[in-house]
Structures are given as C-alpha cells and as structure tokens.
Design brief:
Distance between the termini: 28 Å
Order of helices and strands: HHH
Shape: elongated
Low-confidence stretches: none
Mean pLDDT: 86
Number of helices: 3
Strand content: under 5%
Radius of gyration: 18 Å
Amino acid sequence: MTELFTPEQRQSGAGLAYQLGAVLGGGLAPSVANRLIEWTGTSTSVGYYLAGGMALTLVCLLALPETAPVRTRR
C-alpha cells in the first residue's frame, strides 16, 4: 500500500490509511452489529454486514493500480 504514495508522503499516507481503517472498521463494527441484531432480531444480519464489508474490500482491491515492475517473458 505504501507504493501508492510518493516517497515524501509514504509514512503519513500509510499511517493515516491504517488509522482510519482501524477507527471505521474496528471502532464502529460493534455498534453496527448491535443495531443490526436489535433491528432484525437475528445475528444473521451481522454475517451479511461482514460479507458486505468483504465485498467492498474486494472491489477496492481490484480497483487499485498494479505497482509491481512489468515482468518480461524469459
């Protein structure tokens, strides 16, 4: 992930991305899970919430540019 930032911004960019991910992903998840169980009456909705987060992560991962050097055939 650090390769997505310029060399001058790598530490700040990677640190900020990590901390925002921790706050939004880990900090809000228990509250969201609690509300989902309260609204639906079943814990299955939490599984759907986690699956939705996984799908969003996969879409973001696929949208990132490739930063590895171009490989040539030998």
